[in-house]
Amino acid sequence: MDKEALFKEIFQANSKKIYHLCYGYTGDDETANDLMQETFMKVWQNLEKFRNQALISTWIYRIAVNTCLSHLRVEKRQAKDELTDNIIETRGEEVSEKNEQVSTLYKCIAQLEENERIIITMVLDELPYTEIAEIAGISEGNLRVKIHRIKQKLTELYNRHERF
Amino acid sequence: MKDFEALKNIWQDQIALPKVSHDDVLKKVRKTRNGLTSRLLIEITGMSILAGIITWVWIESPFKMWTTHLAMIIIILCCFYYIISVIGNYRSLNSNHLLDKPEDYIIHLKRYKQERYIFNTRKYRIYSLFFTAGFLLYFIEISYMASFITTLIGFIFTFLWIGFCYFVLMRIYIRKEEAKLEDMISNLERLHKQFEDNEF
After folding, report:
1. Residues of A whose CB is below 8 A from B106
2. How far apart are CA A138 and CA A144, in angstroms?
3. Are residues B29 and A41, on separate chains, in Cβ contact within 8 Å?
4. In angstroms, what separates the C-alpha of A46 from chain B's closest C-alpha?
5. Is the Cβ of A136 closer than 8 Å to some Cβ of chain B?
6. Which of A12, A94, B137, B180 is the most buried (most CB within 10 A)?
7. Count of alpha carbons within 13 angstroms of residue A123, beta-carbon side
8. Residue boundaries of the structural domains of chain B
9. Using an 8 Å Cβ cutoff, are A47 and A3 in contact?
10. CB spacing of B22 vs A15 below 8 angstroms
11. Is the dihedral of CA A157, A83, A22, B22 positive or negative?
């Protein structure tokens, strides 16, 4: 398989989840697209090194996490307050309600610490814990404790948001 | 009241999709690579031409004083230092730390930002001092060769410009860089703490 075909396949298999990770981290659609693009540019540049890797998605996530981390926001508060409403297009009441829920969920994620945002988006996307631990560079035991806390924190934040 | 499973369902039902295709990524890769390479090439070529012209002037002109020869050596070395720095920057930009653990990557980022700061401030200061010294030494022989007025005008304009760059522009630049770096480092330190693998 030539490099472009391989890249296309990798992009199609991973882009959505990487976008979610970037969106969860930044809370902003445009920046998430930029960070996702940057991540895949780096993937393309390093593709030769990945050819023999069993779990290429782990490496892509690692690149995405590091790319997000190097994106140091100066206007940290702003992103949280200006979460865009264009997460999904409005198509009737049912979608509108879903839209609202997704928007609230992103708002709550934006209130977490950076590493918590990264971990929870991977948990929500159902990545195995071993893989998340490998990506975040922490032990599985430590990860489980962290996940437990983040889940509680996020649920609390969400329910508080829904009440008001 | 919703539990975490309910939140997971909301997350998985979302239809938020990236607006970037694999073609867009490849287009951007080509554009960026060309842009970066050509910019670097322009900088290196420009400085090499300057070093070449100075060397040619040095060889062709009948300079008699040792101060002028020393001036030429200093200025040419400054040009080479600039070229080496540009290449060094390019290499460190392309060094591969992307696959490091986030904790190590943050350490790398911190080190990189500090190195860039030192390069843009302390090293630039030494570079300007040497350049100024080179010009000073060069003007010694010029003062013997040219008329007093010509020498004076050349001297005044050259050193006014160097002084303006050093005392005005560079101070503003350093102040801004310092504030930016402080902000970046505190952010990186905060991130580093988050990723420390502490067992609870």
Report:
1. 69
2. 10
3. yes
4. 9
5. yes
6. B137
7. 22
8. 22-94+102-193
9. yes
10. yes
11. positive
Check residue A54 and give its pLDDT.
65
Taking the C-alpha atoms of residue A82 and residue B156, their distance in angstroms, rounded to an integer, is 54
Give pLDDT tens digits for B78-102: 999 988 888 887 777 666 788 888 9
Terminal-to-terminal C-alpha distance of chain A: 54
The interface pTM score, or ipTM, of the predicted complex is: 0.80
Prediction pTM value: 0.78
Q: Crossing angle of helices B170-195/B102-118, nearest 10°?
A: 170
> Could you give the 3-state DSSP secondary structure of residue B8?
helix
Contact across the interface for A101 and B10, Cβ inside 8 Å: yes
What span, in angstroms and rounded, lies between the C-alpha atoms of A120 and B179? 32
Across the interface, do B183 and A74 touch by the CB < 8 Å criterion?
Answer: yes
**CB-CB under 8 Å, B28 with A98:** no
Contacts with B58 (C-beta within 8 Å, 6 or more apart), sequence order: B69, B72, B76
